[in-house]
Design a protein that fits this description.
The chain has 10 helices and 14 strands. It is α/β, with parallel strands linked by helices. The longest helix has 77 residues. The chain is rod-shaped.
């Protein structure tokens, strides 16, 4: 694939600008980094149709031996896109370029990681070396690096740890709650047992009160009261009869006898008898009142015992109801304990995801790991002119370079050589992900630190591999280096 020409009608700060590129080495020059970045972004937006903001332009490119013209205008009320194959005259779907054979399946991730290559950033050599190792590891474990499977796995582990902590806290809280409920059940059972004992004691007292054989017995007491009431009524009748008899006898004697002495004597005798009868009647009344008071006290005691028993029955009912509720709650807790918590289900899901990631990573590594190292070694030999023969990368991503005379760890190499290793990595990613057709490379100020010999060797290899190279730079020194490599360089000024 090669970019032939771009016409920027309206994009950012660039208006009505046409830039033409050759199929070999191109230097995109402007002192302002923003301008160069807008050109790079314009190419990306045109290829993949991103519409974060309105823009308009045309992109001419070659792919698979055919020439294409891609037009987009997002300023219109209805956005307009058109992809024309100038070779055949066929109109194609401009919004599905990466799904067709036009761009050889290039995705936005491939564009970012294999086409657009910026120099490594770091304040020290060790930081730059670690960045190279990180990117090699990232590609080997996630192919096009759209997803960092290792980092994803680490995040899943951290998430799982959080859920595990929640599960432990929940189980501890459930255990504590079960302990509280069990203690409450045990206390209720003890209270119910005490209340039943009290109820039994009251029942025994009631039975003893009803069946007692002494004068306090209810039936004997009630019978005695009946007898006394009957006796009292009899005494009152006798007293009334005595009064009538004495009164009648006294009147009779007073009327029929010439003297009143007999009548008086009869009256006195009657009075004495009446007084004696009154005394007996009063004794009967006192005994009756005494028995009634005893009955009242017995009834009051009986009612008190019954009231106490009723209160105990009510309290027992409340306690038994509370006991039944707590027992049911404890049973539900025990049944619930056998069911997995939501967090436990999430943990199982995370474990499954981590197993899947591990298997997927192993397949990706098996598919791309060795091939990546082999491709990088081949590219590195080319851009270093055979100075670096082969890359060796162990399972911990420690990198060594076979120079022919020795195996040198990447930490001991010149920064220029480390940069060439990095460049070989990004180029190898494009080789592996996009197959036979060579992708263009957009290098952002890549050769600023190169000497003329290294730059010439690198550019010679890149362009000799039928690859379009666009070096974006704002440094005149880098521009001079490119012009002095001896390779035809098309300078494109923004």
């Amino acid at each position: 694939m090669k970019i032939r020409q771009i016409e920027i009608k309206d994009f950012g700060s660039i208006k009505n600008k046409t830039l033409k590129f050759t199929s070999g080495l191109n230097a995109l020059y402007d002192e302002k980094e923003q301008m160069r970045e807008e050109v790079r972004t314009f190419i990306e937006k045109m290829l993949f149709g991103n519409a974060e903001f309105p823009y308009a332009g045309v992109l001419w490119f070659e792919s698979g031996g055919r020439n294409y013209r891609l037009t987009r205008d997002l300023h219109r009320e209805t956005p307009y896109s058109e992809l024309l194959c100038e070779t055949s005259g066929e109109l194609m779907d401009a919004d599905r370029i990466s799904d067709s054979k036009v761009a050889q399946g290039i995705s936005e991730s491939v564009f970012e990681n294999a086409i657009c290559i910026a120099p490594l950033k770091g304040n020290t050599g060790s930081e730059i070396v670690r960045e190279v190792q990180r990117q090699i590891a990232g590609f080997q474990w996630s192919a096009d690096r759209t997803v960092d499977l290792r980092r994803t796995s680490q995040r899943l582990k951290m998430t799982r740890k959080g859920y595990q902590v929640q599960v432990e806290r929940r189980k501890k809280a459930d255990k504590l709650e079960k302990g509280k409920v069990s203690t409450a059940i045990r206390r209720l059972r003890e209270e119910i047992s005490d209340l039943e004992d009290q109820k039994q004691q009251i029942g025994e007292q009631q039975s003893a009160l009803k069946t007692s054989g002494d004068s306090n017995g209810f039936q004997m007491l009630d019978g005695r009261i009946s007898e006394l009431e009957k006796k009292n009524r009899t005494q009152i009748i006798i007293m009334c009869a005595t009064v009538i008899a004495v009164f009648s006898a006294a009147i009779y004697m007073g009327m029929n006898m010439q003297t009143v002495v007999p009548a008086v004597l009869v009256g006195i005798a009657g009075a004495l008898v009446f007084m004696a009868e009154t005394n007996f009647e009063m004794r009967t009344v006192r005994e009756l009142e005494k028995r009634k008071r005893m009955k009242s006290r017995w009834l009051a005691k009986q009612n008190k015992l019954q009231d106490g028993r009723n209160e105990l029955d009510d309290e027992l009912h409340e306690k038994n109801t509370a006991l039944a509720n707590l027992t049911e709650e404890l049973q539900e807790m025990e049944e619930y304990a056998y069911l997995p918590l939501i967090d436990e289900i999430k943990i199982d899901s995370i474990n499954y995801a981590m197993d899947t990631i591990e298997k997927l990573s192993a397949r990706i590594y098996e598919k791309t790991g060795n091939r990546l190292v082999e491709t990088m070694s081949e590219i590195l030999r080319g851009i270093t002119g055979g100075e670096c023969r082969e890359l060796l990368i162990d399972e911990d991503f420690h990198i060594r370079v076979d120079t022919g005379n020795d195996l040198v760890a990447i930490e001991n190499l010149r920064l220029i050589t480390v940069g060439q290793i990095y460049l070989s990595l990004r180029l190898a990613m494009g080789e592996i992900l996009c197959g036979a057709e060579k992708l263009p490379v957009l290098l952002e100020e890549m050769f600023g630190a190169y000497d003329l010999e290294n730059a010439a060797q690198t550019v010679t290899w890149l362009t000799g591999d039928q690859r379009q190279v666009i070096v974006s730079t704002g440094k005149k020194k880098e521009l001079e280096i490119l012009k002095n490599t001896g390779i035809a360089c098309n300078t494109v000024t923004i």
